[in-house]
Automatic annotation (TrEMBL), chain B:
Subcellular location: Cell membrane
Organism, as annotated: Paracoccus alkanivorans
Organism lineage: Bacteria, Pseudomonadati, Pseudomonadota, Alphaproteobacteria, Rhodobacterales
Topology class, membrane: Multi-pass membrane protein
Protein name: ABC transporter permease
CDD domains, per the entry: TM_PBP1_LivH_like, TM_PBP1_LivM_like
């Protein structure tokens, strides 16, 4: 663990979350959450339902109001900024519930996500995305609500990529989709890393997370309980037994 | 045959102008979720501006159409100003705040229009080149109507292209479905909302400007059109422009034929169509259930039973109030009866909204039924005052039972719109049905029985009724029935999952609130000695909302405080010239500065004082 943190310190992280607290009304959801995402790294945020994974991501994205602590992206403070500015800065968010625009076609959904090219990130075009998600090409004129669950999951990722992000926050990409699509999801995440993106994924599925990510945080009841490599985690099975549903 | 065809064309021409205003309303609602009451004002201002521009330019056909377009463009700019100064601050506020704020804007517009163009109705110029009539199948059809029939679908086509073929249009449609997600994808909502509001305002202005050759331009245009526009939007499905056109055609054409059979039907017809459509399709013909994302999620604070100290303060206040007629003059005693009537009305509305979770934009309907029922019982049926005080609220309750059956099928803003439509229809009936309701002249000479005719005695009678009504609703709020209602308010699905029939409970809550509002109306009728259609008008409904809002929705004592303050302010302000402007500004200040009402404001003040004290000792 110590070695890893040291390595990160030498290479400045692209996204840094420090001492993050988040509230809904009077209930505090996150307590002093600190997370680093290195450049071109895939990091998993593991935890059970309700542990605070989605809240962490929404906080980063500026979608929640009662948040304090520090969130910086490329050494710029982004906490308190509206979410459209955070997106424009280069952070893309793929929500857990997919939230595609049901009455828009596949192409129109992608159009909503389209943003100008960015210097520090790969550029995505419709054609490139259709190569990555061949199903979407066939269904480009279909309405969002007529897609299958797996296709909707692909569309929501593709829509975020249309913004040419440098960092992608991927909220539970393997949830509620068929195993064959999960496999495809793993391939997509590997491709994002190959393209030079940094990815933070939230997962309940330890097996899937291990396949696609470089290291992991475990979050429980709004607190970070583990920070380290999967190998270390394997050495201490009691940790995953305690905090994850395995 | 020719005659019927002519009726069809008249209906289609009416549909076009209705479509213009309704489409703007629908687009604005779809994206910003704001129910824009001031939309009728934009329509009215469009007509006045076009009147001035076209008359001033006098350039023939070119001048006419240029004047119409410039008027619409100016209205668009006015819309931008409203959006940037007021609406932008309240996008996250509950519907109630938004509605009341736009009503404040409406008041300001009414006086501004009065100040600029004066009170007399203006007869607009004919459209040059289109001022004749064409004979179609032997019937004369105004050429201008034919032009309007073409303009409606053309505008629809224009909006359709704008929404389908431009990036802006795609963003607007996406925002209609999930605006929070659109923001997370990098779209600046502020800009999108402003542009949407400008488009909606432009369409309203255009609708008004195009009316000048057909209709006299008057200060009543704003409220007379808004009710019908709301109905069109709800029937078509909120946010759907195609739906707005279909609904406008449906209503207008049905109306053109229905008046041949039964001339009085025109005011009731839209409601009947709306009731049928909403019963079959709860989100309108082309509407879909809106996304839940981005809705206010703040959980409601639990209501607490009053402590011993609070009870003592309450009883002391009541005692002071009860003794006041002995000290103050008759004039003030009458004013105090007004305060009590307003309080009871506000408490009944608060029960419906705060406890029942049903926002009503038309609560005056039941106040008005109570008032009219009382007047008719006394004047036409010769029933005595005391039985009337029990019977009239029961009639109001029956009215609420009837309309409530439709309303509770919906939720949120659809429910609110349906309540508004119900009130508007009832208003139309009382206005139209002269032989029973006296129409505009109202019913006069509704005085209390001889023994209660002195102001002081009537004060105590009203006092007993109001305290009784308030106590009754408080009891209901803290009964198992009240707890169930609040459970439904907080989570309908969870309440239903534990076996609660949510519709039935809300229906009963609606009826209860309506009956108590009817009691307020009954007391009102006897204290004024007369009733007029105003008592079920939009303004009366909004007054109730303002009282609830002034007091703060989260406090049971809120409506009592709010009603008192409201009547005092109204009594003072309405003596001034241009009182609407002042009142409108007061409303806007409250909405923008103290969104949690007077009660909330006082609470915050105390919290701050406590915090300062704590800081001082530490």
């Amino acid at each position: 663990m110590a070695v890893l943190s040291l390595k990160l310190r030498m290479r400045p992280p692209v996204l840094e979350v420090a001492n993050l607290n988040a509230r809904y009304g009077r209930a505090q959801i996150l307590h002093d959450v600190s997370i680093l995402l290195g450049r071109n790294e895939v990091v998993a945020l593991l935890g059970r339902n309700g542990a605070g994974k989605t809240t962490t991501m929404k906080s980063i994205m500026g979608m929640l109001r009662q948040v304090d602590g520090r969130i910086s992206y490329e050494n710029q403070d982004i906490l308190g900024k509206p979410s459209y500015m955070i997106c424009r800065a280069g952070i893309g968010y793929v929500p857990e519930e997919r939230r595609i625009f049901r009455d828009l076609t596949v192409e129109e959904n992608l159009e909503v996500g389209r943003r100008a090219k960015r210097e520090n990130a790969p550029e995505w075009t419709l054609e490139r995305l259709f190569d990555l998600f061949p199903n979407l090409r066939e269904r480009r004129s279909n309405l969002g609500k007529h897609l299958s669950g797996g296709e909707q999951q692909m569309l929501t990722i593709a829509r975020t990529l249309m913004g040419n992000p440098a960092v992608v926050l991927l909220d539970e990409p393997s949830e509620g989709i068929a195993p064959v699509i999960v496999e495809q999801m793993g391939f997509v995440i590997a491709e994002l890393k190959r393209q030079g993106l940094s990815v933070l994924i939230s997962e309940q599925n330890l097996h899937f997370a291990r396949l696609v990510s470089d290291r992991a945080y475990i979050i429980e009841k709004g607190q970070v309980r583990y920070d380290g490599s999967f190998d270390d985690l394997d050495q201490h099975p009691e940790i995953s037994r305690k905090y994850l549903a395995v | 045959m020719g005659f019927y065809f002519a009726q069809l064309l008249t209906g289609l021409a009416n549909a076009s102008s209705l479509f213009l205003i309704a489409s703007g309303l629908s687009i604005i609602f779809g994206v910003t979720r704001i129910v824009n009451f001031a939309h009728g004002s934009l329509y009215m201002v469009g007509a006045y501006l076009a009147y001035t521009l076209v008359s001033a330019m006098d350039l023939g056909a070119f001048g006419f159409w240029l004047g119409v377009l410039v008027a619409a463009a100016i209205v668009g700019l006015i819309g931008l100003l409203i959006e940037m100064t007021i609406l932008r601050r309240i996008y996250h506020a509950p519907e109630l705040f938004q509605l009341v704020a736009t009503f404040g804007v409406l008041l300001i517009f009414q006086d501004a229009t009065l100040a600029i163009w004066g009170a007399q109705d203006l007869l607009g110029p004919r459209a040059p080149g289109l001022d004749g009539a064409l004979r179609i199948m032997g019937e004369p059809i105004p050429e201008y109507d034919l032009a309007l029939i073409a303009i409606g679908p053309l505008v629809l086509l224009g909006i359709w292209l704008l929404f389908r073929k431009t990036r802006w249009g795609v963003l607007v449609r996406a925002a209609t479905q999930d605006r929070e997600m659109v923001a997370a994808l990098g779209v600046n909502q502020a800009w999108l909302f402003s542009a949407t509001f400008v488009l909606g305002a432009f369409l309203a202005g255009l609708g008004g400007a195009l009316q000048i050759p057909r209709e006299t331009v008057s200060l009543q245009m704003d409220l007379s059109v808004i009710g019908e526009a709301f109905v069109i939007v709800v029937i078509g499905g909120m946010g759907s422009v195609t739906g707005a056109y279909v609904a406008a055609v449906l209503i207008s054409v049905l109306n053109a034929f229905a008046i041949l059979i039964f001339p009085q039907v025109s005011i009731v017809l839209p409601f009947i169509v709306m009731a049928i459509v909403l019963t079959l399709r709860p989100h309108g013909l082309f509407g879909a259930a809106g996304s839940e994302h981005g809705a206010p999620t703040e959980p409601e604070q639990p209501l607490r039973l009053m402590g011993e100290k609070g009870m003592m303060i309450l009883f002391a206040a009541m005692a002071v109030f009860a003794l006041s007629p002995v000290i103050v003059g008759d004039f003030t005693t009458v004013l105090l009866v007004d305060v009590m009537v307003a309080t009871l009305f506000a408490v009944s509305l608060h029960f419906m909204m705060g406890i029942g979770g049903m926002v009503s934009f038309g609560h005056a309907a039941y106040f008005g039924i109570g008032a009219y029922a009382a007047a008719m019982m006394v004047k036409q049926l010769g029933i005595g005052m005391l039985p009337t005080i029990f019977l009239a609220p029961a009639v109001a309750g029956a009215g609420a039972l009837f309309f409530g059956w439709f309303c509770v099928r919906l939720s949120g803003v659809y429910l609110a719109m349906l309540t508004l439509a119900a009130a508007q229809i009832l208003w139309g009936i009382t206005f139209q049905w002269q032989q029973f309701t006296g129409g505009d002249d109202g019913i006069v000479g509704v005085w209390p029985a001889g023994w209660a005719s002195s102001d002081k005695v009537y004060f105590y009678l009203a006092f007993v009724c109001c305290i009784g009504g308030i106590w009754f609703l408080r009891r209901a709020a803290h009964s198992p029935f009240g707890y169930t209602l609040r459970g439904i308010r907080d989570s309908r699905t969870r309440a239903e999952a534990i076996g609660v029939d949510s519709r039935f409970h809300q229906w009963m809550g609606f009826t209860l609130a309506g009956a108590v509002a009817g009691l307020a109306g009954t007391i009102f009728a006897f204290s004024k000695g007369s009733v007029f259609p105003d008592s079920l008008g939009i303004a009366q409904s909004i007054d109730g909302l303002i009282m609830v809002l002034l007091g703060g929705i989260h406090a049971l004592a809120g409506p009592i405080l709010g009603a008192g303050v409201f009547v005092m302010i109204e009594d003072w302000v309405t003596r001034l010239a241009y009182w609407r402007v002042i009142f409108g500004i007061i409303i806007l200040v409250v909405v923008l500065l103290a969104p949690d009402g007077i009660a909330g404001g006082i609470n915050r003040l105390f919290a701050r004082i406590r915090a300062v004290r704590k800081g001082g000792t530490a």
